[in-house]
Amino acid sequence: MEVRYEGPVPAAKLVDMRSAAQCAAAHPQPVYDGSLIVHDGHLANAVVWIKDGLQQRVFAPPTEPVVIDQQGCVYVPRVAAAMVSQPVRFLNSDREAHNVHGHPAVVSSWNFLLGRQGAEETLTFAKPEIGIAVGCDIHPWMRGYLSVVPNPYFGVTPASGAVTLALVPPGEYVVGVWHETLGTKEQRVTLAPSGSANVEVSYSGS
After folding, report:
1. 19: left (phi over 0), alpha (psi -120 to 50) or beta
2. Lower CB count within 10 Å: N or C terminus of the chain?
């Protein structure tokens, strides 16, 4: 699965951390807003998942947690995805205190403090939801996104814009693609027994 971006890429905005000296000191180089990252037409930080076609199947969630760290007052990774009931561990690697405030529309909201370096909190989610915004009320520029999907066939695109959904059973599916600023797209895919499919989805910039 390849996710592309066509058109001019807007200049990234500089993140102003001067209100928190420890945060600014963690970055000797300027930090830019990561809401749209494009490399040679390839779109990073897009969530790809099988949206439709697996309703009659039941999958055991992974026991390995998805880790969302806070490093230099930035979420790492900015965009993450987990399966329903998979642990999601929020970690604070900074000496600076952070709170982790989720703003979902479907799952229960959360807001807790990670007040020291090494503090962590683990959550699980019983229902799926795509593109949950996560922020820190102490440092308003901190922004991340978590997607919770109902099956194990998902990924977040790296700089190459490509993810592989492996071991998908044969069938007819709708593949969803979500990006924080560009929205959601869908692509129908038919997968033959022992077959594979190369799927490309493109977003257009203004």
Report:
1. alpha
2. C
Alpha-carbon distance 185 to 187, whole Å?
7
pLDDT tens, per residue, the chain with 206 residues: 999 999 999 999 999 999 999 999 999 999 999 999 999 999 999 999 999 999 889 999 999 999 999 999 999 999 999 999 999 999 999 999 999 999 999 999 999 999 999 999 999 999 999 999 999 999 999 999 999 999 999 999 999 999 999 999 999 999 999 999 999 999 999 998 887 889 999 999 86
Nearest to 177 by CA among 166, 161, 194: 161
Amino acid sitting at position 176: G
Q: Which of 139, 151, 106, 146 is nearest to 122 (CA)?
A: 146
CA distance 136 to 201: 32
Task: Assess contact for 164 and 55: CB atoms under 8 A.
Answer: no
Number of H helices, E strands in the chain: 1, 17
> Does residue 175 contact residue 49 with C-beta atoms inside 8 Å?
yes
Residue 23 tokens read as: 């945060």
Q: By C-alpha distance, which of 166, 173, 169 is closest to 190?
A: 173
Domain CATH code at residue 7: 2.60.40.420
Distances (CA, A) of 37 to 11, 129, 203: 10, 23, 12
User: How many structural domains are present in the chain?
Assistant: 1
Residue located via tokens 């604070």: 92
